[in-house]
Each structure stands twice: as C-alpha cells, then as structure tokens.
Amino acid sequence: xxxxxxxxxxxxxxxxxxxxxxxxxxxxxxxxxxxxxxxxxxxxxxxxxxxxxxxxxxxxxxxxxxxxxxxxxxxxxxxxxxxxxxxxxxxxxxxxxxxxxxxxxxxxxxxxxxxxxxxxxxxxxxxxxxxxxxxxxxxxxxxxxxxxxxxxxxxxxxxxxxxxxxxxxxxxxxxxxxxxxxxxxxxxxxxxxxxxxxxxxxxxxxxxxxxxxxxxxxxxxxxxxxxxxxxxxxxxxxxxxxxxxxxxxxxxxxxxxxxxxxxxxxxxxxxxxxxxxxxxxxxxxxxxxxxxxxxxxxxxxxxxxxxxxxxxxxxxxxxxxxxxxxxxxxxxxxxxxxxxxxxxxxxxxxxxxxxxxxxxxxxxxxx
Amino acid sequence: xxxxxxxxxxxxxxxxxxxxxxxxxxxxxxxxxxxxxxxxxxxxxxxxxxxxxxxxxxxxxxxxxxxxxxxxxxxxxxxxxxxxxxxxxxxxxxxxxxxxxxxxxxxxxxxxxxxxxxxxxxxxxxxxxxxxxxxxxxxxxxxxxxxxxxxxxxxxxxxxxxxxxxxxxxxxxxxxxxxxxxxxxxxxxxxxxxxxxxxxxxxxxxxxxxxxxxxxxxxxxxxxxxxxxxxxxxxxxxxxxxxxxxxxxxxxxxxxxxxxxxxxxxxxxxxxxxxxxxxxxxxxxxxxxxxxxxxxxxxxxxxxxxxxxxxxxxxxxxxxxxxxxxxxxxxxxxxxxxxxxxxxxxxxxxxxxxxxxxxxxxxxxxx
Lengths: 367, 367
Fold this sequence. Notes:
Radius of gyration of chain A: 23 Å
Oligomer: homodimer
Structural class of chain A: alpha/beta
Distance between the termini of chain A: 36 Å
Helix content of chain A: 25-40%
C-alpha cells in the first residue's frame, strides 16, 4: 500500500528524472531515490541513452547501506540486458526490500516482467504511485508504445485570429522570443521534425535546437517537388547528416544524383492516384527508421494533412496578441460541416509565453 | 500624500463601487468609504443612474460622526446639479477634513472643478490613489470621454484556429456555457450591441441580457438589405422597443411602412459610392443617441468593418478548444501585407472560461 511519504519520495524521483530532459531519447527519463528509515540515502537519474540507469546511480551512491532500503523509481526497472545490465539483478543483489513504481514500462521486453522478477525474489512492490505524473513526464515514450507508431506533436505559431502568415507568406515573427525558445524546447524533445516545402521556401529554417541545450532531431521535408530554394539551410548546414527528404522514389533517385542531393537521407513514399504523398506512409517509415516522436512544424498544408489523417496526438499553439485578417490559415479544409463534428481537444491548458498565450491540448479522435 | 492605509480604504471603496455593476449606466460605478481614527464609519456605492451618489450614501450612514473624517471616493465628487445635488456641497457641510480620490472625473462639468471647490473650502485633497484600478473599473466611461465617442468592444467566439462558424454558417455552440454567460455579462456592461444581418439570419439572436441580471442594451442591426428572416427575435420580441435598424434612408422609409417595421428605431446612414454603409457613421449616430459603449458581436463582416475603421477599443475573444479547418474566419481582409503591420493588442490577459480561453486585449492603433 502507498503512503503519503511514498508520494513525497516519488515526487523527488520525478524531479530527478526531469534532469535528463532532452538527452535520454530513445530512452525515457527516469529518476530513482533510495530511502532508509525515512531518509534519502541515494539518488540518481538516467543522464542519456547508453549511460547507467537511474536505479544503478542511486545504488552506487548508497553502497552497502542500500540493504534493507526502499527504492522509488519512476518507471518499472528493466529485467533485460540492453546497453546496460538488468536493473532487477542489481536491486536484488543490493538487498532492497521494497520497490515503489508509478507504472509498468510499456516496452514489451519489460512490461510487468520486471515486477514479477522482483516479487519472485521476495521484494515488496508497490505500483501506481503518481502514475499520471510519471506518464505525463514521458508522454511521447508512453504514446509511442500505446499507439504503435511515433507520438506526433503539431506546433503552430499563429495570430489571435488563426493566421500563420500574411497572404504573401510573411510570418516573421508572429510569436515572441520566449515562444520561439519554447519551440526549441519542443524540438529538443522529439526525434524528428516534419515540414513541407512551402515552409522551407518561405522561412528557410535550420530546424536545429539552438535556443536551449539539446540534441538536434532529424529534419524531415515532405515534398513531391524537391524545389529547394537556392539558399537552403537544410541542405547547406547538414554537417550532422540529419536532413531527410521524404518524397517519391523517382524524385529521390533524380535528386540524389545532383550535387545538392548528396549526403541527404531519402525516404521513398508511395504516391496516391492523385499524386499526393500520404503522411501515414511518412509516419510508417519514420517508425521503421526508429523515430519515436515527431514534431510537425507546418506549414498549413502539412498540418492539415496530418490532421486529416488523424495523425496528431498533441497540439501546441502559440497565440500571438495580433490580429491579421486575411492570410494563411493555421489549418485548411478538414471537411467539417457542423460545429459538433469539429476536432475537440482534451486535457487543455494554457499559460503565458512572453507576450503570447501557449495553448496545449490533445485531440480527442474518438469523439 | 498617500499612505498604505489610503490604498486599503480605496480598495474597499472600489469593491463597493463594483456592486453597482451593470446598473449605473450612463453613470460610472462609484464607491465611497468614510474613515475616522482608522475606522470605517460609513460606506456606500452608486446603485443606479438617478439614485444617490456613493458619497451621499456613506455620509448618511455616518451622520454627524462624519465631521473630521476622511472620505475615500473612487471618482472626483461632482460639483454640479444633475438628477441629484452637488456632492461637494454635502462633503463640505458634513465637515469632512480630507478627501482621497484616484482620478478626476472626465465629465467636463466636473473635471477638476470638484477638487478645486473642496480645496477652496479648506479640505485636503489627495489624488492618484489606485488610479489605474479606478480607471479600469469604469473603462468604457473613461474611454467615452477620452475618445469623444462610444467605447467599442469587439466580442468573438471562435475555435482555436480562428473560425467563428463552419462554411455553411453553423456556429452553435462554439463556446462553452460559461463563456456564453460571460458574453451576457459583456452585454450588461454596454449601452448597445451591434450585429450584421448575416448574424441575424444565421443565429436569430435575441441580443438580450438573460444569463445575468442586468439592463438590456439597445440592439442595433447594421444592414442595407433589411432581409430579416421570417422568424426573427429582434422584431418579434421587441417589447422594450430597443431594436434599432441602422440602414439607408430609403430602406428605412420603406421598411417603416411594413407591419414588421413598426415600433423599430431607425438610424439613417449615408451610403458610400459603392453603396456600403460606414460604421463610422453608425458610431456617430450612436453617440448622438446617447450611447456611451457598444458591443460588436459580429459576424465576420461587421467585425472586419469596425477593425478596418479603427473603431475597436477592446477585444474579447472566447477561444474554444476546437479545430475546425475551413470555415468563416473571425476577421476578414484588413489589407495587411506584413506581420509587422498586424494589429497588436496591448494589456492582454487571458483566463479559463469553462472549457475555453477568454483572451482580452486592447488594440494599439498608434503602433
């Protein structure tokens, strides 16, 4: 049974987990706290993929003192050998008597097996403590396993009246510097960013993580035309070889032979009869490529295509205190005729982001 | 000089003033507190136009005890005889020794004269205490005098992506019940509501104050066509004779002769060469008619016309957590080509309103 103290120590473990933010992908953020006689005797968090798991860091800190203590860890301990050995072995060996976790690891290699191994070794395991918070912390990790495909976030920077650019395509800068930093934080949290060619041509974005410390995600351009502009950061600043062109097979073959097309990664998508590329294909290929989360940054056509396909799991809208009138809408035709058919967002929250309002919600596709 | 205690008592006076909300127009809300030896000995607020002023109510409560006390009043006391006698006389007669006010009354009949009369009588007058709060409380009253025309609020109920209806005109209900109540609170604060004929035809609104207690404002339809729908609440439920048709002179003459056109108030507006009616004309007539505040409720064309004319002083947008895609935009063409030319809102704030976000701002026309 969980106690009030369990909540407090799990809260601390969640805090620790957050310190791994932007660095652990494809692993989740995990924090661990070892408690003996009501006192913390060891703490740790997972620093980056390949580094020691949080439990191990905490155990190393506590040393032989760990025997007889309670371990609070924000995710079920692993019981398989990955880049590091199974945590369950280390926990049993250290003489831990109780393990408290919020939630099972959705990774099929663990998913309850870790708990069973611990219980079999005579350790008391308490589950469900701060479950919601733990899932929220790693929402794209949990989303990936639940959905069986990358977790997809749609980001929009718009005026109050829902425009992302003037009719002539001017969009700099709709959102505040604080919001642009928030957008970089979003980038740092995902494995890949998706944009359409109109965004490449109008904004010439670098799509890198600059305003915060973090790893650059893959930069994916969804395009049939391959009409890259003469100056193009995605092609010119590709030293990390993370620019991906998602296009038709013939277009990929053609462009790969050109000087600018070297060193790019090509994803070959099938065409529909009308020649349009399917975002569902892009998502499948991204999944095969090992990406667990995608950030769709626009423009309007790409955002609309993902919404039409029902392939948006989270929406983040930066609403600038501007009125533009006619211009490019954030979202195009979704074939909705009645308000009651509109796409509803749940679990919404909004907060100031510089001069803007940052509005976050989760599409309710089942409604 | 103002002291900390001055702020506390003025805060109380502002609280009292607010109790007159929705009832004092065309007068401002005013509250008053009488303080002697650090203790409140009388309180009052202006209940409705024609009733006693706040100062008088407080004086009546304190009776002869008022002599030697300090009066906190949220607006400069009047020195002219309106429906009630001048407050300055009563204050002097009661033997008040100090008067604290946030701000001068912008009404030309007062506007500093009240302060001079009090000072001439030997009373100490302190000004500027909680000035910002006092002006905010009666923003449309102060706006009316500052602008020399009615204070104009634009209200929009839209989806997150800036749509006020589907392409076929369905708009019920975009906003939550809480937001619809907030909209009635807005109605209760103004002297007139303006809508276009498309709103009358699509929504058939009553434009009355129902979800809160308050006085119905005038209901103004801006229309050239006079194509009222067969069932029309504005014509059918006009027992208070507050429905106004703002149209061309010939159209007014024609419609006034019909059965449905009886009992309506007509405002005759000049036409531009292209036959379009000017919202600036509507605002002039509203001013002459004695309206000090207008609420523009839409639709898109009317909202756009007011924005094009620079005749919006405050914007209140209810943002529902819905994505609609193509549909009727909140705002139409404002002829803006660059983001830096977009209409910026200042002093913005936003807060939850049921499931919605209520976003409030003030257009910065000078930018």
